Amino acid sequence: MRPATIGYGLALAAALAVPAVGVYPVFMMKLLCFAMFACAFNLLLGFTGMLSFGHAAFFGAAAYATGWLATARGWGTLPALGAGVVVAATLGTAVGALAIRRRGIYFAMITMALAQLVYFVCLEAPFTGGENGLQGVPRGSLAGLVPLRSDVAMYYVVLGAFVGMYLLIRRIVHSPFGQVLKAIRENEARAVSLGYEIDRYKLLAFVLSATLSGFAGALKAVVLGFVTLSDVLQANSGEVILMTLLGGTGTFLGPAVGAGLVVTLQEYLSDLVGGWVTVIIGAVFVACVLLFRRGIVGELLALRARR
Amino acid sequence: MPDDIILETRGLTKEFKGFVAVSDVDLVVRRGQIHALIGPNGAGKTTFFNLLTKFLAPTRGRILYAGADITDLKPAAVARRGLVRSFQMSAVFPHLTVIENVRVGLQRRVGTSFHFWRPAASLAVLDTRAHELLEAVGLAPYARMVAVELPYGRKRALEIATTLAADPALLLLDEPTQGMGHEDVDRVAELIRIAARERTVLMVEHNMNVVARIADTITVLQRGQVIAAGSYAEVARNPQVVEAYMGSSTAALGGAPA
User: Fold this and answer.
1) What is the per-residue pLDDT across A181-214, written as a single tens digit (0 to 9) for each?
2) Residue A3, Cα to own-chain centre: how many angstroms?
3) Which CATH number fits domain B5-246: 3.50.50.60, 3.40.1000.10, 3.40.50.300, 2.60.40.10?
4) DSSP reduced 3-state for A34
């Protein structure tokens, strides 16, 4: 067996054993939701070369849509999740269509401005609960078959979702479409001269990334049972960039590792040091940028390649 | 526009601020020919190429290709109609392997380029054709190498293979032998000749040996204007051309065929 296969096997076994060894499942689910968010974000940054500063808009809007439908409208869990994903995809199409007309920093600014717009809508709209957010989102059940009130059942669903998304992203990157994306990232003018309408490819990549980010947000709303403004806040867009860079852009597992690190630090350090946790994460980020620019997983892969 | 003309420009002009890069150029490229565009540095050859492939918008003038006016089309649309260019600076996809580079050129016509759910292995159907193209440019032994690791001359060869992969009706080559050693130059010249059996070639070229050997028609540009056109022998006799190249009308143009 290849070492990678063994590594994946061990990681999956550990993930399956989490509820049995007494790790708090809600924490693990939150971690996995952010890991999905970071992996979805990396599809755009790492594999297409576009840096969005507004991905919280897709994560948050989907979370609000799912949360509102499940509480105020009494929708079932799956339809509510599905609707959240549709909202993210629609929003992603609109934002993407505007943003991909520009490159680099201008692209980033447009995504940021539009995400800020979404934030203010969530702050002011009557159905989002304003500063209070949406509380008491029911977990319901999986198509009426598996009740999700138990943390263990919910955990396995989230783990399955994570594995599914991970495999889907791998497939997207290693698909005919992924090949064209790679070519565009490497040399745009050349791709154009071979007849590719690069804007359409970029838009599809953007929409896929936004859709998957939305799925992560919607699932998080169901898992934790609440949606707040922090889901749609600019800071959340920044955090997902941080997670991705920490773990390693353009690697499959890196963003998940980065998300794990950030969420763990936030969870356990905030009890010890309170508000200083932001400072510590900032310091970790600076160290990462200065010392290991490829991110944790990126550096490990580079180390293996050198041997 | 008669059938045997594949490309025609009428009064094509590009002005930048206070400077005319391409001035009122009327060019006719006949089907099946190798047509060379020559001229001293700064004559506007690359700008002219950028106009043809729509990477630049002309200030004035029309471009007709295969009977249709393509002046207002977008670059990718022009490429899909069969007018495909190479670039002056080596333009490969550096971190793709050699065979992947060629496959990008082939892939669009398979029609699965937006299929993000399909495995990349579905592109393996293109490998036979990709290998043929690599064989033709002498890159078959390097198929699995990452393009960035190729020496310069071979990168140019890879670029030509990728351009041919798009199966253009009109192939635009921007200085295909620039920076190459003797052996590579001969190989590429031969390759262009083979490629031209099934298509038309319009090339910017500095190497007069290559031009003399393979070009059917030559157009000479100077300061954005056409100063001569015709066969190599005709053009080489033109005093204006000789002067443009050598600075005096008495010196001979290099690379005359034996």
Assistant:
1) 999 999 999 999 999 999 999 999 999 999 999 9
2) 27
3) 3.40.50.300
4) helix
Residue A264 touches partner B, C-beta closer than 8 Å: no
Contact A196 B162 (CB under 8 A): no
Q: Which H or E run contains B35?
A: strand B34-38
B93 interaction partners in chain A (CB closer than 8 Å): 182-183, 186-187, 190
- Give long-range contacts, CB 8 A cutoff, 24+ apart: A22-27: A25/A151, A25/A152, A25/A154, A25/A155, A26/A151, A26/A223, A26/A224, A27/A263, A27/A267
**Angle, alpha carbons B228-B230-B233 (nearest 5°):** 100
Q: In 3-state terms, what secondary structure has residue B95?
A: coil
Cα angle value B250/B252/B253 (rounded, 5°): 130
The whole-angstrom distance between residue A29's C-alpha and the CA centroid of its chain comes to 13
State the Cα–Cα distance between residues B79 and A196, nearest whole angstrom. Answer: 8
For residues B208 and A1, what is the distance between their CA atoms, to the nearest angstrom? 58
Q: How many CB pairs under 8 A join A and B?
A: 102
Asked if B114 has any chain A CB less than 8 Å from its own CB, the reply is yes
Mean pLDDT of B220-237: 89
Domain ranges of chain A: 23-234
Which regions of chain A does DSSP assign to beta strands (E)? 141-142, 146-147
| 3-state SS, one letter per residue, for B199-258 | CEEEEECCCHHHHHHHCCEEEEEECCEEEEEECHHHHHHCHHHHHHHHCCCCCCCCCCCC
In chain A, the residue whose alpha carbon lies closest to the alpha carbon of B113 is: A177
Pairing relationship of beta strands B19-30 and B5-16 according to DSSP bridges: antiparallel
From CA B187, how far away is CA B247, in angstroms rounded? 31
Three-state helix/strand/coil letters over A163-177: HHHHHHHHHHHCCHH
The whole-angstrom separation of Cα A38 and Cα A257 is 9
ipTM above 0.85?
no
Q: How far is A216 from chain B (nearest CA, A)?
A: 20
B88 pLDDT above the threshold of 80: no
Contacts of B233 (CB under 8 A, 6+ apart): none
Residues shown for chain A: 307
At which residue do the structure tokens 């920490």 appear? A246
Sorted by where each begins, the domain ranges of chain B are 5-246
Task: Tell me whether residues B79 and A182 touch, CB distance under 8 A.
Answer: no
